[in-house]
Predict the 3D structure of the following.
Amino acid sequence: MPKLFSLSFFLSILFFVGCQPPEQATEAGITDGTGPQKISVKVQEWTVTAADGFEIHCRMVTPDGQGPYACLILAHMLGKDLSTWEGFQAKLAGMRFASVAYDMRGHGKSLSRVGAARDREFKWNRFSDEDWQNAWMDVQAVLNKLKEIRLIDSQRVGIAGGSIGANVAVIALARLDGLKCGAALSPSFKYKEVSTEEALKSLHGKPLLV
């Protein structure tokens, strides 16, 4: 069975466990949703390509500093997009954590695929079983990108997801050595062919908050 941890302990593990410049870096102020005050952060947006060709749109938020920072990858719910995590990204930045929210394949701006016509959109409600089963590859592509970014400590990267994003998070945590810990918010054993049953048996001691 996976280990269960409080969120604060999960973040503590992320902090203590243990290159080209970032693209499109901008200084920005964002709110954490609890009040009008702005938190000074750096916001970067970029696209990575998954192993099966899906082009994945990402938004990275880091504290306003030199780093390197521990980082949390964020996977949203079915039918949503990376904007779901905006307030949480601000909270993490306020705690001196970096984060990357991404549009899961078939969602938001992640609707294209290498080799396909540029005007063709690959939406989640028309996915094959294989498209869903390979959704963890989105995380793999994000993780590979983070290894190139000097602001990020690639030895302190975790993942969190909600609903189908929770299932993706569990599978990615089991498959990818670069992920040190995870949080799964409302996961299931199988959702849209994204099955966690085998992954839960293959975490190899990595901490998981459920």
